[in-house]
Design a protein that fits this description.
Elements (H helix, E strand, L loop, with lengths): L1 H7 L3 H7 L5 E7 L5 H14 L2 E8 L8 H12 L4 E7 L2 H11 L3 E6 L14 H8 L5 E3 L7
Parallel strand pairs: 1-2, 1-4, 2-3, 4-5
């Protein structure tokens, strides 16, 4: 988290020196709701700290095609020569994030668009999921909360 703070204030070399190259940013998105601002944040912070990006895409069905906005983002990553992985899951975004972090120990932080997208297609009152969520192994960055006045 300290490296992220240094990168956000423009101290890129300090941030890079604090990180190992195998560390990754996890961009977790709902395939039906891709926010360009969230993708741009993940790209910019990844470039600043010199890490790759894993994109966790959750949709109603694993067979659902990737959204055009996400295809455009993947093209942008390729142009910028950012190392990335695309992980497809179906169901609950919150649950997919928890499972990903249980399997991967090289994640610096998770970037999401809003707290509201986390609950889509999630089982109600799942105490195991709630407990696992409280024990996340890395910080959660919420880029846009989507509140309207």
């Amino acid at each position: 988290m300290a490296a992220v703070t240094f990168a956000e204030v423009g101290e890129f070399e300090t941030a890079k020196s604090m990180l190992k190259t195998k560390k990754r940013v996890l961009l977790a998105v709902d395939n039906n709701r891709i926010d360009q601002k969230t993708c741009t944040y993940a790209l910019n912070i990844s470039k600043r700290i010199g890490s790759g990006i894993d994109i966790l895409v959750v949709s109603d069905s694993a067979q659902e095609p990737v959204a055009p906005a996400l295809e455009a983002f993947v093209c942008q990553l390729q142009e910028e020569k950012i190392i990335f992985g695309l992980i497809r899951r179906s169901g609950c975004l919150k649950e997919a994030i928890v499972h990903y972090l249980e399997e991967e120990d090289n994640t610096l932080f998770v970037v999401i668009e809003s707290q509201g997208t986390l609950q889509n297609n999630c089982p109600r009152q799942d105490k195991h999921l709630a407990a696992a969520w409280r024990r996340l192994k890395c910080p959660l960055v919420v880029v846009a909360e989507g509140l309207k006045a």
